[in-house]
Amino acid sequence: MIPSIHDRGSETIGLISYLYGPGTKEEHIDPHLVAAFDPLTPDPGRDPKATYEQLQHLLDQPVTALPVGKRPEKHVWHLSVRAAPEDPVLSDEDWAAIARRMVATTGIAPDGDETACRWAAVRHADDHIHIIATLVRDDGRRPRLHNEARRAQTECRRIEVDYGLRRVPAGDGTAAKRPTSAERHKAEREGRDRTAREELRETVRRAVAGANSEEEFLDRLKSAGLLVRTKVLPSGDLQGYKVALPDDRNGDKEPVYYAGSTLAPDLSLPRIRKRFTTPTDTAAQPTALDPSGASAPARARYVAVQAADSALTSITSEDDNTAAAQLIGVGEVLDALAQTSPPSSRAELQAAARHFERASRSHIGAKNEEMYALRRAAGQIVHSGTALGRGPDGTATALILDVMILAVVAAARWHAARGHAQQAKAAQLAARHLRTAYQATAAGPLATLRAHGERLPAPNRRRHAAMVRAALPHLADRLQAEPGWDGLTAVLDQAEHDGHDTAVLLAKAAAQRELDSADSASDVLVWRLHHLGYITTPPGRSKPTPAAVPAVATAPRQEVMRSRRL
User: In what helix (H) or strand (E) does residue 76 lie, and over which residues does it extend?
Assistant: First the structure.
């Protein structure tokens, strides 16, 4: 059961007209009163003699009794309470009881308070009610509504238990504000797929990804086509910012601006500023590989692989503050990939980044310097431009997506272990979209790699098969029977050509994690060998470069194979 407290209004009659009217799409059926502050409250839905004006006058009496100068400008309070689609249809009596519980818990009409605010609950659909109240009590005072949204959520969790309804994961107050009904209706009227608030939040989040300074962040907002306003302190320091879509206008034809903090808790300028923290010692941070012939997008993705692999270790460690920072960094890398990946995977990556945005926030404080490597990688991805869907770009994109799947799955488990139900679910949804993006990206490079393995001379193939049987006797038969065997052979042949001890590399790759439940153990080993081939330098030789590998495709590691069945 979901409670939603809507923006306060100034006209009671307007909201009453909407609640009892046909709805924007004729969706309101049999509007009627289910409960009110007074059993004798007129019901325009069922009583033909009752009017909207009578109900409005009754609710507004405490407001109009005040001197004009003391009346609150926005005195109309509006709460909707909605059941889940799979919940049973509740009776009017059930909804009446729920309405009384909601006005009591929020402070509108506490139990036993004879001079509380006036309110009425209207039902115009099977699955929800609307509660309208006026924010002046009968004794002329204002109600105490501190944290009413959180209290409403808590009461809904109790109602779910009492009525046997679907249990909605409890929130922790770190979610972004949902669009209001007015914003949704406006988007529908204007033919927009999303509200201005949602579009702005995504655009601002992408502008943050990998930005090194306030100036770069603001420049990105303007380059994205947003209208930007800033507030500067007398000292000259920037205090805050607001953004608007150029074509989103109010009734006076003026742009509708949103402050960053109203888009999401972590998009306020002070919170964004914290991300610019740079470690005092950056020597240990990943450095860009410079493979001969590789494109800038491919190089940026290889850097991101190193940073994400390191973050994966941090997320599974016992340092929650470091893990929280890495989750923010993972979100920025996803935002960077969503902007720069090939069209074949871009929509899925945008959906993954949109879902993971919720998983990047919790009440656990982040060690901001710990996200530096991922933020640096995100910045390089953005600055490198759009990657192609083939060749080294496709291989590098598949490689980073593989690691990101593991990082997002680890994030889901991290949140679940700490009771962050909403964040855990968001990470799981992000992982689904990432897997789809990976499959679209890796199919071509994987086919190319297998074709390369098939063309190897017979002596090379026999030599690699013998090595695999000696290094992994318990897996040899299975590996050679899989479709991915030719791709594994191709990677082993290239590793040998580059001077690696393939038996050592293969044993190290197999020992990283178990392989028994993998859909394709050979594909898993292809990814592991490909990665190990770049971070393990053969004695006496310079580090091999990705350009030497013929369009190597990545494959999900073991955790991803298991997570596909979640």
Answer: strand 76-82
Could you give the CA distance from residue 439 to residue 533 in angstroms, rounded to a whole number? 23
Closest CA to 177 of 111, 266, 244: 266
For 241, list phi and psi in degrees, rounded to 5. Answer: -150, 160
Q: What is the pTM of this model?
A: 0.77
CA dist list (Å): 99 to 8, 82, 120, 163, 302: 18, 11, 9, 14, 55
The CA distance from 358 to 205, in Å, is 12
Contact 77, 134 (CB under 8 A): yes
pLDDT in tens, 95-131: 999 999 999 999 999 999 999 999 999 999 999 999 9
| 3-class secondary structure, 266 | helix
pLDDT in tens, 10-52: 999 999 999 999 987 778 999 999 999 999 999 999 999 999 9
Closest C-alpha to 12, from 70, 72, 66: 72
Length of the chain as a residue count:
566
Query: Which DSSP string corresponds to 347-378?
Result: HHHHHHHHHHHHHT--SSPP-GGGGHHHHHHH
| C-alpha torsion 188→193→196→198, nearest 10 | 130
Q: 278-283 long-range CB contacts below 8 Å, 24 or more apart?
A: 278/369, 278/372, 279/369, 279/372, 282/372
Q: What one-character-per-residue DSSP string does 170-184 give? A: PP-S-SPPPPPHHHH
Residue with tokens 């590989």: 289
Using alpha carbons, select from 249, 250, 247, 271 the residue that is nearest to residue 260.
271
Which secondary structure element, helix H or strand E, spans residue 121, and what is its range?
strand 119-125
What confidence tens digit (pLDDT) does each residue in 171-212 have?
Answer: 777 888 888 777 888 998 899 999 999 999 999 999 999 999
Q: What are phi and psi of 121, to 5 degrees?
A: -115, 125
CB atoms within 10 A of CB 161: 9
